[in-house]
Amino acid sequence: MTARARTEWSTQRERSTRSALRLILWIALHLGRAPARALLYPITLYFLLKAGPQRRASRRFLTQVLGRPARLREVARHLHSFAATILDRVYLLAGRRELLDIRLHRPELVTDRVAAGQGFLLLGSHLGSFELLRALAIEEARIPLKILMYPAHNRIITELLHALNPTIADSVISLASPQPLLAVKESLDAHGLVGLLGDRCLPGEPAAICDFLGRRAAFPSGPMSLAAVTGAPVILAFGIYRGGNRYDVSFELLAERVELERRERTRREASLHVWVQRYADRLAYHTRAAPYNWFNFYDFWEDDDASARTS
Predict the structure, then answer these.
(1) Radius of gyration in angstroms for the set of CA atoms belonging to the chain, rounded to a whole number
(2) What stretches in the chain show pLDDT beneath 70?
């Protein structure tokens, strides 16, 4: 994979229009969840037919993780799961959490540190719904969560969802801002949480090549470098969609402190790679357990496996 391919996600165009999304939001909020979920089937069919790059990326991923050629119905299930999590974000941001069955696993890893006034990094991914965690934190006003993100991607849907709950826009630390790392430090010093995703490389961002699901993939090294610089603990978070209205949100401690070798550059890079690989290993574990929650719809792996390239 070239550096350009690693950042392919950042140039994918939005396929939904503002008017179509507004109609879906109106149906979701005024007619209810059942009619809105019925719309997911034609939406899935549309993307199955029209979103060629995403469809092919889904099939390649599922072929890899399932260990056999992925069927079309499995690709459709994959796209449907993604659409379902987007719809449920609407209800979370609109304060309709009662419509969802959200089960928390080891929440004390977060709540105990918040109660003790300890800032930390909450490291997620595009496996499942990380937005679920942000919505829960905003609902629980006592959890001071900021999200370090690149807001320019999927601008239309982001703007519409933020309009549902303007508070969520205030929780963003933009990577496009002049000094995002200063804002991160201020949040941690104020005993807050900073959430970020560790599975997509931004243009120009240093990457570590890791083993992932039996192949080589590029993961950004920035999150682990940030953890090392700030000295903040790192807790992993996964919001997995189980179908229907159920989500399982699990937390696990990756590190109380990320320590990197300081004496020479090559040894520092090697120790950084170890930490990124630990993250990739945990992500692979949860991905195998819930493959239809994988929402990176682009060529993810570093190596070129022609056998996985089916239409």
Answers:
(1) 19
(2) 1-17, 138-142, 151-158, 161-162, 304-311
* Strands (DSSP E) found in the chain: 101-105, 120-124, 145-149, 172-174, 193-197, 207-212, 215-220, 234-243, 246-255
Tokens standing for 188? 């941690």
Residue ranges of domains in the chain:
3-298
* CA 47 vs CA 52, 66, 112, 140: distances in Å: 8, 22, 42, 35
Q: What is the pTM of this model?
A: 0.88
Query: 118-146 in b/e burial notation, b at 16+ Cβ within 10 A?
Result: ebbbbbbbbbbbbbbbbbbbbeeeebbbb
From CA 86, how far away is CA 80, in angstroms rounded? 10
Tell me which H or E stretch contains 285.
helix 265-289
CB-based contacts of 74, cutoff 8 Å, min separation 6 = 62, 66, 292
Name the DSSP letter for residue 109: H
**What are the CA-CA distances from residue 288 to residues 97, 164, 213 (Å)?**
28, 34, 8
Tell me the two tokens of residue 234.
């790192």
3-298 folds as: Glycerol-3-phosphate (1)-acyltransferase (3.40.1130)
Concatenating the DSSP letter of every residue in 149-207 gives E-TTTTHHHHHHHHHH-GGGGGGEEETTSS-HHHHHHHHHHTT-EEEEE-S-PPTT--E
Contact present, 276 and 208 (Cβ < 8 Å):
yes
Q: Please give the pLDDT value at position 84.
A: 95
Cα 192-282-236 angle, rounded to 5 deg? 10
Residue 296 CA to chain centroid, in angstroms? 9
Is the CB of residue 9 less than 8 Å from the CB of residue 298? Answer: yes
- Give dist(CA 302, CA 290) in Å, integer: 22
